[in-house]
Structures are given as structure tokens and as C-alpha cells.
Write a structure and sequence with these properties.
- This protein is mainly alpha-helical.
- The protein is built from 14 helices and no strands.
- It has one domain.
Length: 316
Amino acid sequence: MNNSAEQNQSVQSNASQKPVLAKGREKLMGHMAMMLFAVLISGSFTLGSMAIPFIEPGAINTVRFLFACVVMGVLLTVTTGKVKIPKAPWRFILLGALMGAYFVLMFVALQTASPVSTAAVFTLIPLMSAGFGYLILSQTTRPVVIISLLIAATGAIWVIFRGDIMALISFDIGYGEMVFFVGCMLHAAYSPLVKRLNRGEGVMVFTFWTLVATAFWISLYGMGDVVSTNWNELPVIVWVTVAYLAIFTTAGTFFLLQFASLRLPSSKVLAYGYLTPSIIIVLEGLIGHGWVGLPVAFGALITIIGLIVMNLAPDS
């Protein structure tokens, strides 16, 4: 068996065994996938904040996931020629529940919190993911990685409190940020669970069934909002957001997240989320929503430093 085949076998090995980390080209592809993931996620915060005044979180998420299931289902059928029920479907029901709750809570948070502050909360996921990685996969994290996570978390907290030292001292955190923090905890558990629960399925197959399960849970929550929404009177920004979310930050990011989760340690998979506050600051400024103050920008810069330190550290 050649080296490439050995790498593929190790990447897709039974998750009940201690996972073998990818190396070389496979590892690089995992990092590139998460770089694209960060860019796509950043756009969802800005678009989501523009659409959410016109539509309920349950409605927009139900439609986006049903649309994403159709897109991924067509791609899966074209590439494999068939779609069959997977073994142990309870795995996808569990993963779908985690991600469904995360996406709903994100949009609930955006009703009161700014895109920059919610993105800052998102950057806390790698630190939480490292903890779940230890609990679920017994993955240990090197001290330098822990330090980088703490550095990035410090920057994220500074952004969450808007660079206001008095707000930090008094723990003046908004309702939206608290809601999204709960969602991010669920997201953090998702990455190591993907590696634990994967039984050799290809990334596209695993992505499709996770999307289906997520759509199921969100539909249970949001079908009432779907029925009560007057879809004919929604502004164009809502439809643009639905299309973007369904194609890029639902089907696209699910694929990228699963792809990277099978190749990188849990603590590093979502480390690229550190880029989201900085990317969103630029996006918000460019579209005319205003530029943040220097103290908040400084916090975003600290999160980038955390990412750099993280990727310079060797894998566990």
C-alpha cells in the first residue's frame, strides 16, 4: 500500500480507536479547509444581522437547511449514484441536535447582539473544543497550544465587552452574547464527536446525513415560524441571506468542518474561527455599518496572534 493510501486509511480509521492525525498534504488540506470555513462563517454573521429583523430564526434556519439538504443530496447522487440509509442513524440524530441548536441560538443572539461581538464569542469555541477533545477522544493539548487558546480567548473577551474595562469589571455582558455562548458550547462538542462517531463514511455522505438530521430538529422547532411568515413580502436581503446560508455556510461549512475534523486535532479544527472578528470588522466597515474603535480592533488582533501561535505549535 502506498503512502497516500495509508494516509487516507488513517484519516478514515474507526473512531473508536485513538485517532491518528494526518500529515503532509492531508494536514495542509485540513488547514486550508478551515481557512475557507472562517471566511464563509464571517459572511453569515453580517448577512444574518441584516436579515433577522424581517424573519424569525426558526423560519430562516428551517428553509436554509431544507435547501442545503437538497443541494447536498443532488451532489451526493451525482458523485456516488445513490443515497442509502447509514448504519447507526442515531449518530446523526445526535450531531444534528447539537448543530441545530447552535444555528438557532446564533440567530436568536443576532437579534440583540452585534455581528462583531457574536463572532468574538465564536472564537471561544477552540478552547472549549480542546476540553471536549480530551473528554471524548482523550486528546491531550500541548502547553503552547493551551497558551495560544488563552491568548485568543483574552482577545475575544475584550471584544465581547466592547473594550470597556468597566463593563468587564461589572460583567456587563448582553443577553445575545450569553445565548450564543450556550450555542458555541454545543458547537465545540460537535468536532470531536464527528471523529468519534465516524465509521468510515466518506465526508460527503457524513455531511449529507448530518444536514438531514439538523434539518429535522430545526424543522420541529421552526415549522410554526415557517407557516406564519409572509414569504411574498420579504425583502431581497432575506432571500440573499437564505441562499448564502444554505449553499455556503450550511452545506459548504458542514463539508469543510467534517473534512478538517478527520485530519486535525479538535483544538486546531476551529482555531481559524479566531479570524472571524477581524474579517467581520472589515466587512461591516466596507458595507457602511461603521468601523469599530481601536480598543475593540486591538482585541480582534490578539485573537489573530492566538491563531498564529496555535499553528506554529506541533500537533498533539
